[in-house]
Amino acid sequence: MQDQNNREAGLAAIEDEIEMLTTSPLYTYRVAQGWRPVIGEGDHDASLMLIGEAPGKEEARQGRPFVGASGRLLDELLASVGLQRADVYITNVVKDRPPDNRDPTVDEVRIYAPLLARQIELIQPRVIATLGRFAMQFVLTHFAMPEAGQKISTLHGRPLVAHAPYGEVRVVPLYHPAVALYAAKQKQTLLADFQQVRAQLE
Fold first, then answer.
1. Which of 28, 51, 95, 102 might form a disulfide with 135, Cβ 3.0–4.6 angstroms?
2. Is CATH 1.10.10.10 the classification given to domain 2-201?
3. Which helix (H) or strand (E) holds 168?
């Protein structure tokens, strides 16, 4: 019970820090737009953590990850392997929306990365599925994995082994669901790759 209490307290502390993260260049933009940070949601004891890149506009409005078109597709992909949002934990590398839906900058990733690292340590997932190249490179670098620097086109759908302080973690790089919104054939790739995610949970 104490471990669970520590986890909940730790995640609540992270949420408070992100809410008032005035050192982030995205903080002022968030406040000006009346948006919310997107910290993460789902099972705090999940075996599977899904990590995206940064929130979109709808995510920032609601303060929830993957709630737009990409989110609906993500729900479908999870369902295809017998999972629901309640079964997993979903978050992003960067917790605030960059302007004009641009990619996060190196400085922005640097500011938010320690917070994601703490989320991983608290939730202690056995499997991490990265959604998109920014999330993939963060995780590969964070765990000092030999695949760091390789392209997502090479690594997607391949289970990789990482070593966290709490034990072994399987990392499965995936394309971001948004790619399937613009290239229908990529949906079949994502469906196949999610089968690999499911296999790592067995």
1. 51
2. no
3. strand 167-174
